[in-house]
Each structure stands twice: as structure tokens, then as C-alpha cells.
Amino acid sequence: MQFTVTEADRDLTILAFLRRELSPSSKMLKYLKYRPDGILVNGEHKTVRYRLQVGDVLSVATEDTCANTALAPVELPLQILYEDADLVVPAKPANMPTHPSRDHYDDTVANALAFRYAPLGGSFVFRPINRLDRNTSGLLLIARNKLSAG
């Protein structure tokens, strides 16, 4: 995720800018601070105390660096009611588990979403915001990246 600093943002600390623009959790901020490419200004690692200047390009690494390799992508029917870069809302049918568990390793919503996103490349991490019991149908809210899950 990239931002170009404008006159209105001049002299804001990175922390103040990120809180205003993204409202990250403290856990997400810690993740960004200690990741080598977590917070970059003009391609260089900076601390959250750095004061932004007009024209600076602030890059924030919100993508995942490693996938959940234990999650098998499986083609399963799953209706998607809403989807954007941050969230996906599938309609979970009854008798489909939300995530893998004992005796359900490849018939879950997580497996179906792993299959859906496999062609996009990169990594897929299943981050459910809510979950439903296997026998319950309904809507799930799934975060598609670390920032939207925080």
C-alpha cells in the first residue's frame, strides 16, 4: 500500500499518518515496525517517529509473506456475496465447516477460498472475523490481509 505525502500531511509522524489513514491495531503496528520492509519512505526503512515531507512516498507492507501451507486448495461451490481487496463475504452453506478440523481437512470454506485465490499468486492466509458451526448456514466475514484483520 502506497501513499504520496501532500502539503496537508507535512510534518506528521508516520504513526499519526497511519492512525488517521488506516487505524491499525497495536499488533499490526508492531508487525510493521519490525518487518524490514514494513514501513518505507522513498524506499528506505523508517521508524514511526519519522516526520513526513511533501512528496515522500510512504509504503506500508500489508501483504502476507507466507501462506498457510497446511490448507489445501479445493474446488468447492461457494457463493461470494461481496469481495474487495480487504474483505470477502461468502455465504456458508449448512454442513460445510468454516475451517479445517478433525475429519474435515478438505471440505471447508477455508479450502474453497484457498482454491479461489490460488490463481492470483502470492500467499493466502485464512483470517475469519467470525465463524459459524458446521450445521449453520449464514454469512462469514473473512479478512484478506493482515491490516483488515487487525
Description:
- The chain is of the alpha+beta class and 150 residues long.
- The protein folds into two domains: 2-60, Structural Genomics Hypothetical 15.5 Kd Protein In mrcA-pckA Intergenic Region, Chain A (Roll), CATH 3.10.290; 79-149, Alpha-Beta Plaits (2-Layer Sandwich), CATH 3.30.70.
- 20% of the residues lie in helices and 19% in strands.
- It is built from four helices and nine strands; from the N terminus they run E-H-H-E-E-E-E-E-H-E-E-E-H.
- It has helices spanning 14-21, 26-34, 109-117, 146-149, and strands at residues 2-4, 39-41, 44-45, 57-60, 79-83, 87-92, 127-128, 138-139, 142-143.
- The strands form two sheets. Strands 5, 6, 7, 8 and 9 form a five-stranded antiparallel sheet that branches. Strands 1-4-2-3 form a four-stranded antiparallel sheet, with no helix packed on it.
- A hairpin with a 3-residue loop joins strand 5 and strand 6.
- The relative contact order is 0.18.
